[in-house]
Design a protein that fits this description.
By secondary structure, the protein is an alpha+beta fold. Strand 27 and strand 28 form a beta hairpin. The longest helix is centred in the C-terminal third of the chain and has 21 residues, at 403-423.
Length: 607
């Protein structure tokens, strides 16, 4: 039986991340960066696919665990028949090679411990060659080497399968185990193995506390907001500023189903959400880095704009299936890469131009060539905005005239006009204004269902879509507009167990819209959009109730995945999900004493 998704905690060095279970096992780790092949992949298979467990001999889940306040340092405590022990896990922010440190400390009595490291390179399938070098164990396979150092003797089990270290920790004693990745052609033990673990721990805790001290949020949900911001920072690839959607791949939206996607990449749809979240929280440096990544990634012809890019801005993200991995709780296929990079999505043009406009208004310096990019993108949209696309949710079914995509075309034109006003560049303003007005009229005419009294998912369809809740935030219509209020009321049809689905599911077979078999859970972000819309339309008490329900389904260390299954009472989808945590921060601000006016880019427009 696999551990629940919510049983995992995150640690990160701002270039990659590890998922640590309540039983002390690291079951997911990609080295040296987020999108590298996994060398520990038990999360998507069995222990034979790689894990590193440090725990009392014969023990189960820890008795208690928590992050240290305002830091990404995880403490797990076991209370056993012979004593109490604590394992502290962390990854020092990268100053060189990636490093994962596990400090074991005896708190009372004496506890027999075991560290068992079973590395499986290249997505959990290649057994490395393990040997001893200078009191360390080093595992090598192809280009990768992983070194394990400890305050004692480590031994290889049967020479090839695993590295095991048995030891006893009495009260007051500390022992550290340090894992470091390096290119396999380097012969010497990596530098982090020679640095005392206490030094690394202090530097890591100091880094995170210094970073969290910049936070501007002081409302009633500070702990939840701070943990979400730390998580967002942990999902940032520091060398480029890119933010991955999640550190994992193929955690299912339906247990045993095929809704399993690789989220270890950067989505343009997150652009403005991430920028707004970072800027209003006080993290201008991170917002600027994300914008810089965005400008570099999308460089090129507007027709070549992708929905998703790699952490370095790379475009090629070929989607493959790992037949050797049985999947989380049998959910197959396990996918690496994401073919959504090749989809046509109109909404991303709006997201990019919205991000540019927001940055300009925030005073972030914009490269001179960005305006040329704005003009090129608007020229492309003028020719192609009437075409059907695959939409915000990256459906794998037929292209449709998605309402949200058209709304984002309106956003693109609106923000281009606003940027032109700010920069004194109005040469094309007449054409763009005409396009903006035409899109608005079309959406209000063809995207509105008079019978349902709601905006719908696509032209001519009665189906609802939670993305319609974003209209007032985007400024397409004011929250006071009766069409917005009607849409908010209609979204109750997407309710399930107190949470909100992104759109109506199917009981079995292939979904007519997204082209994938099986059902899925409610979406955390959609539930929070609903709370925002309630607050914006004056229903603040109900909005708070929805928000509190979302807070209640975080795991024991404050993390959220993409989805929540109210029937099974468990998290679903990749975790932790940046979009879920961004939405949490946004809703906390919207419900703060400053009121629901603190929503993203309010741009009221009648029509």
């Amino acid at each position: 039986m696999s551990a629940l998704i919510e049983d995992y905690a995150l640690i990160s060095d701002l270039e990659t991340a590890a998922m640590v279970g309540r039983d002390g096992s690291v079951d997911w780790l990609c080295l040296p960066r987020f999108d590298s092949p996994a060398c520990l992949a038990a999360l998507l298979g069995t222990p034979d696919n790689g894990f590193w467990r440090v725990a009392p001999v014969g023990s189960g889940p820890c008795t208690h665990r928590s992050y240290r306040p305002d830091a990404l340092v995880l403490d797990s405590r076991w209370e056993t028949a012979t004593g109490t022990v604590r394992v502290t896990d962390f990854m020092p922010p990268r100053g060189g090679l990636p490093c994962l440190v596990r400090v074991v400390e005896g708190l009372s009595g004496a506890v027999s411990m075991r560290s068992e490291l079973q590395l499986r390179f290249h997505q959990g399938r290649v057994v490395p060659w393990i040997r001893a070098v200078d009191q360390c164990a080093v595992a090598v396979a192809g280009p990768d080497a992983v070194w394990l150092g400890a305050d004692g003797i480590v031994r290889a089990l049967d020479g090839v399968e695993a590295t095991v270290y048995d030891f006893t920790v009495p009260a007051g004693r500390r022992l550290a185990l340090t894992l470091v990745w390096s290119p396999s052609h380097l012969p010497e033990p990596p530098t982090p193995l020679s640095i005392p673990a206490e030094t690394l721990l202090k530097e890591t805790a100091d880094f995170w506390r210094s970073w969290t001290a910049q936070c501007h949020y002081e409302g009633p949900w500070r702990d939840a907001v701070m943990r979400s911001l730390i998580t967002l920072k942990a999902l940032t690839y520091a060398p480029t500023g890119g933010i991955v959607a999640a550190p994992t791949t193929s955690l299912p939206g339906c247990i045993g189903g095929e809704r399993n996607w690789d989220y270890r990449h950067c989505w343009l749809r997150d652009s403005t959400f991430a920028l707004t979240c970072l800027l209003r929280s006080g993290y201008r440096e991170e917002a600027t880095a994300w914008l810089d990544w965005l400008v570099r990634a999308i460089a090129g012809a507007p027709a070549d704009l992708q929905t998703v890019y790699g952490v370095g801005g790379q475009r090629l993200l070929p989607e493959t299936e790992a037949s050797w991995l049985p999947g989380y709780e049998g959910s197959r296929p396990v996918r690496f890469g994401n073919s959504a990079a090749n989809q046509f999505q109109l909404d991303v043009y709006g997201e990019v131009l919205d991000a540019f406009c927001l940055s300009l208004r925030a005073g972030i310096p914009m490269p001179a060539h960005v305006w040329n990019l704005v003009e090129a993108m608007m020229g492309y949209l003028q020719r192609h905005w009437r075409e059907p696309d695959q939409g915000l949710w990256q459906v794998r079914g037929p292209r449709r005239q998605f309402v949200h995509s058209k709304v984002m075309v309106w956003v693109a034109a609106d923000r281009a006009l606003r940027m032109g006003e700010l920069l004194g560049r109005n040469g094309s303003s007449g054409e763009w204004r005409a396009m903006r007005d035409e899109v608005h009229r079309q959406v209000c005419r063809q995207g509105w269902d008079a019978g349902r009294r709601s905006f719908v998912q696509s032209y001519g369809s009665p189906a609802l879509d939670a993305s319609a809740l974003l209209m007032p935030r985007l400024g397409f219509l004011p929250a006071s507009d009766e069409r917005v209020r009607g849409t908010v009321r209609a979204m109750r049809r997407l309710h399930h167990g107190g949470f909100v689905r992104r759109y109506a599911p199917v009981a079995d077979g292939v979904h007519a819209v997204d082209g994938v078999h099986g059902s899925e859970g409610t979406f955390v972000s959609c539930s929070l959009w609903y709370a925002d819309a309630l607050a914006a339309t004056g229903q603040v008490a109900e909005a708070r109730d929805v928000f509190e329900r979302v807070l209640a389904v975080r795991n024991d260390v404050g993390l959220l995945s993409e989805q929540w299954d109210p029937d099974a009472g468990r998290q679903l989808g990749n975790a932790p999900k940046a979009f879920s945590h961004i939405a949490l921060v946004e809703t906390a601000f919207a419900l703060s004493p400053s009121g629901p006016g603190a929503v993203r880019n309010p741009r009221s427009r009648a029509g």
